[in-house]
Write a structure and sequence with these properties.
Length: about 500
């Protein structure tokens, strides 16, 4: 199969939306009838205009038959996206003037049969006149109402389908589902069915998703796919399938540059794996992941940080206190730092942004800070862990090393994690507070490492102007992970900087 740069399979008619072409397995098969259905406001008209404009750009004749909108309204919609509809013929099928005549409305001579026949005749005349290779009819609800019955409606759609086939036209029928929502008449007639939906979460912007429910003789990407409507048309984010993205790379350990931490990890975190940094608030999770990112930049690689919880300006100021110049790193292109407002973002769009960042910049170290913000900002979304699983698998197969942070509930004693992704991560770093000699201290340990060996000790660490400094193993204290340490001997092993 050959695919052109727009994402459409050779020989197919591109929808003009690369993500939708991807979902459809290449685009719309020519000389077939397709149904785009969805409630008002889901983006059907925008998708249809994109389809026609893609044809016009390829030198094809295109026709938009509108039964529900005026031509002025349609051109206003196009103008809102920066389109002028050059090369697209718009045929506005106005209702007969008799509908405005009260005497005709009350007359027994007035018949919907006559109006349906007249509507069909005008559509066919427009097609004969333009001879288009791409046609959009908006919308089927008007024809369904005129038919006044499922049998006549089906016969009418079938007649139009055979007529279009003789004229070698690729047709998109729009249905706004305002009549009989359970009527599946056109589903059995159409070659393919694309359903667009709009969801209203309890908080944040509306979410839209698309699903291909039918495509005869074609393998398509099933399931729901997030999309947005922006100036310029639809932006569709195909559901990520990580198994489709495999690359070869050397899975070598990547050091953090912090001697004690690298000793705990027996060299560092392996390339192409994921590392979860788990601990209560204030233990330095963000700084720890930033340390790995700076180490990657020092090796000549690029790093990408996606920050959910913290404002980027404040993040840069905090990093400056440790001698890290975030603005300079961003200006040089070595560091990609993105503020993520997940309340305005769907999981599919976020995944697409991470993928695009890795593909565009070649970032080999990716930090997601934090999963708490990711989850809290999308409370109405389901299967967030599945989204995260596919994203982590994709990044791993691209040879990128991923760092994630999760803030646990509580500060000492029993800890609770709002989201459990420990089974997804290849390496888990556990951070803890503990009390010793009248001081609140921090401890770090590696509790899981799939890709290699790790030290099983618990080490104290501090955060000062140098950044993260990890000390020697704590051999004289027990109960640190539970938050209730017990001295088994002297204070030997505690870091000098924090001794009283």
């Amino acid at each position: 199969m050959r695919v052109n740069p727009a994402g459409a399979r050779e020989g197919d008619a591109s929808t003009g939306v690369s993500g939708l072409d991807d979902i459809l397995g290449g685009g719309l098969k020519r000389r077939r009838v397709f149904l785009f259905e969805g409630s008002p406001g889901t983006g059907k008209t925008t998708a249809a205009l994109s389809f026609l404009l893609a044809g016009a750009a390829a030198g094809e004749k295109t026709l938009y038959v509108t039964l529900s909108e005026t031509e002025e309204e349609l051109r206003d919609t196009a103008a809102s996206h920066g389109w002028d509809l050059q090369g697209v013929v718009v045929f506005e099928l106005s209702p007969p003037e008799s509908l405005l005549d009260e005497r005709q409305q009350q007359s027994l001579l007035y018949s919907s049969d006559l109006e349906l026949g007249e509507t069909t005749r005008l559509i066919l005349e427009a097609i004969e006149r333009v001879q288009p290779s791409r046609v959009v009819i908006d919308s089927l609800s008007e024809i369904r109402l005129l038919a006044q019955g499922s049998l006549r409606y089906r016969r009418q759609v079938l007649a139009l389908k055979h007529y279009f086939a003789k004229h070698n036209a690729t047709v998109v029928l729009l249905d706004d589902l305002t009549a009989e929502v359970t009527d599946k008449t056109v589903h059995s007639v159409a070659h393919g069915v694309v359903r667009l939906e709009e969801l209203a979460p309890e908080y944040g912007a509306e979410r839209r998703r698309v699903r291909v429910t039918k495509y005869r003789g074609r393998k398509f990407r099933g399931g729901y796919h997030d999309f947005t409507i922006r100036t310029g048309g639809l932006d569709v984010f195909p559901r990520l399938v990580s198994s489709e993205h495999r690359t070869d790379f050397d899975r070598t350990p990547l050091p953090s540059g912090v001697a004690g931490l690298d000793a705990l990890l027996r060299g560092g975190v392996e390339r192409g794996t994921s590392c979860l940094v788990l601990g209560p608030a204030g233990t330095g999770k963000s700084l720890l992941t930033l340390t790995f990112a700076i180490s990657a930049i020092a090796r000549g690689e690029r790093a990408a940080l996606f920050v959910f919880d913290e404002e980027v300006g404040l993040f840069a100021e905090r990093a400056r206190a440790f001698g890290i110049d975030i603005p300079a790193l961003r200006a040089s292109g070595d560091l990609i730092l993105e503020q993520v407002d997940a309340a305005e973002l769907s999981p599919g769009e976020f995944t697409s942004r991470v993928r695009a960042c890795v593909a565009r910049s070649g970032a080999q170290t990716v930090v997601l800070d934090s999963l708490n913000g990711y989850q809290a900002a999308m409370p109405g979304e389901h299967s967030l862990l599945l989204h995260m699983h596919e994203l982590l698998q994709f990044l791993n197969r691209q040879g990128a090393t991923t760092f994630l942070t999760v803030a646990q509930h509580g500060l000492v004693g029993d800890m609770r994690s709002p989201v459990d992704v420990t089974y997804l991560a290849d390496t888990v770093l556990l951070l803890r507070y503990f009390e010793a000699l009248g001081h609140v201290r921090r401890a770090i340990s590696v509790v899981k490492k799939r890709a290699g060996q790790h030290e099983r000790t618990i080490r104290e660490y501090t955060i000062d102007e140098r950044g993260v400094v990890v000390g020697e193993p704590l051999t004289q204290i027990q109960g640190i992970l539970g938050g209730f340490p017990v001295f088994m001997g002297s204070s030997a092993g505690l870091m000098p900087e924090t001794r009283p």
